[in-house]
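I trust your eye. Have a critical look at both lines of this record:
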Amino acid sequence: MASRRGARPSGTDGSDHQYRMVIESKYHKVADVKKRLKTLLALQSLYYGCFIAWNCGVPLLEGKRPAPIVGIMPLVGFMAIILGRKGVGSGSAKSTGAALIGYIVCSVIGFFFAIANAYVMQTMVHYMDSYANRFGVALEIASGLPKDLLFAFGQMIEGGLHASGMLVQGLGAYLAVSLRTASSSTKKA
């Protein structure tokens, strides 16, 4: 467009390449880790929504009360998500290191809660009392489908929740530590 109005300004024909500013790779790394952590925070929110739906939905189908861990795990998880959003600096807010440390701590606690929940549900709960079996029984009455098919479906749901809980919490802590490390290297320069 500039050539239609006259001569091109000097230095814009590509010969100024050696004088152009280049963003250092460490700043690209910080931006990339922040983007990944924001995506993971959305996945954590989805996980905790599914966790609450499964762990409250099955007892409520039967007219019972959910287990106390159902309230504790999401509380820690949602606190981690809030701290993570503050640590990443969502919107126009600036990221804070203290919130990122809080996110790391809450994610590690959530990771161990997810392991403990999987351990208890898979080893200490009797087959007949498992959520997968109770899910099958409750839906057999409502839908008329075979209980064994619904039980298998319930086991897949529960296994997926256990695996994804450990994965999103562990990966969240890892990404937050990576972000903290990358951010501290940019501040030293």
Observations:
- DSSP finds five helices and no strands in the chain.
- The mean pLDDT is 83.
